[in-house]
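Pasting as-is:
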Amino acid sequence: MAIRWIVFVGLLSGSLICGAARLSAASERAFAHAQNAPRSDSKSEVPDPAPSGPQSGTVIVDGIAARIEGDVLTESELNELSAFQRLLEGKAMSRDELIRELTDQWIVNNEAQTMHFARPAPKDVDQAFAFLEKQSGAHDDFQKRLAELGLTENAVRRQLEMQIYFERFLDYKFRPAAQVDEEQIEEYYNGAFTKQAHAHGQAVPPLDEVHAEIRHLLTERIITRRSAQWLDDTRTRLRVEILNAAGAR
């Protein structure tokens, strides 16, 4: 499944215990920060990074990593996502996993645009970027790390914008049917939640104090599961041709 943030609720000592699927804590917090911002129908325009490499007179042709239906995934898209993942986690997925990730983004982007789903407002992306930079340390250190990875600020903003858009659309598509009943909440409270509290040497709070958080956790799990299934099913119906790094099949 493409990037989907999952919050695990522990609520030990009155706090949330959070985890993230395939993303660092810093990126999860940046995303959550942007998610809580007011949403806008305006489209976030993120300019392309300035050209780099050989000087004037040289035409740089981007390689093709994969073909999806009538579209292509380029090597530069693959490299940018890889660098972004290294920025967040210190490592990146394999080439095949990156192509699958970009394919999932293609699926979401196509359906979301068909439904005229609003892109994140520029201020949401700005807020996520600022929060990520703050979590990463001093401004100069952050800029140095971007340079080491070959990333521009525009590239990071573009990746954040896509992840926010991706998550919001999946939430919009699957939350209405993600219903959690009282029996499920009590089962989780008496089982996994209580076991986790005991493992941390913490007293188990009354159910009514953690009821809302447990409902939220279980709802997120349903959305994540249904999103993954939808992406898997849709992917199998696509005509995807994966090329190697040299552009051959």
